[in-house]
Amino acid sequence: MHGSDSSPLFQAALLQGFRQRNLIEGELIGSPGASRDSVFIVRNGRIRVYLASEDKEYTLTFLEAGDIYSTHSGAYIQAAKASEVLIGETALMLRTLDALPGAAPSIIRALGQTLANSMQLIEDLAFRDVEGRLARFFDGMLARKGHPHGDAQRLELDLNTEDIAHLLGTTRQTVSSLINRLARQGILSRVAPGTFDIHRPDMLRTRSRQPGKLSAG
């Protein structure tokens, strides 16, 4: 449910007493162990949900306009860029659901995406090196968002290199280096920031399913 300010979901939330909160890039809206149990609706921007240890961060999902999530999820919840949310106590959301049952699919979608990403992250960390995880990421995004462009498949992502690194549990420098390597091997080319032409999707798929090094052969 990716809505506008006039959507029934936003109107119902405002009527139930949700308040608007403006977030600057990097600001936390929730963290593990936080005592406050609130629910928020993303009005615009992008919110990152992630787990963190002393030296690692693992992104579970990105929330965008219309998505609903809880601050009491046991994860860090941070504005990936300047964002606006409508926030209220969980009891307010329960009343909103009574007033607008159509809000439930948005909650289910966000939680389902988080669970799917969590399972993929666990599988990737257990069975794939970073290069394999990157190949799987590109292969999955190509299936969802790719479209023909000349002799290649054009992939346009609303994610920067750091966002991709967070999703893969690695560093921006590593992702940049691996993308450059894929480009040298003729598997893809970077057209613009966030835009790629995939020339050998078959090689991405093969690499995403088994260990070993990508080969240009």
TrEMBL record:
GO biological process, alphabetically ordered: regulation of DNA-templated transcription
Xref: InterPro entries: cNMP-bd_dom, cNMP-bd_dom_sf, HTH_CRP, RmlC-like_jellyroll, WH-like_DNA-bd_sf, WH_DNA-bd_sf
Alphabetized UniProt keyword annotations: DNA-binding, Transcription, Transcription regulation
Organism: Stutzerimonas stutzeri KOS6
Cyclic nucleotide-binding domain span: 14-85
Protein name, UniProt field: Crp/Fnr family transcription regulator
GO molecular function, one term: DNA binding
Domain HTH crp-type: 128-202
Superkingdom, taxonomy of origin: Bacteria
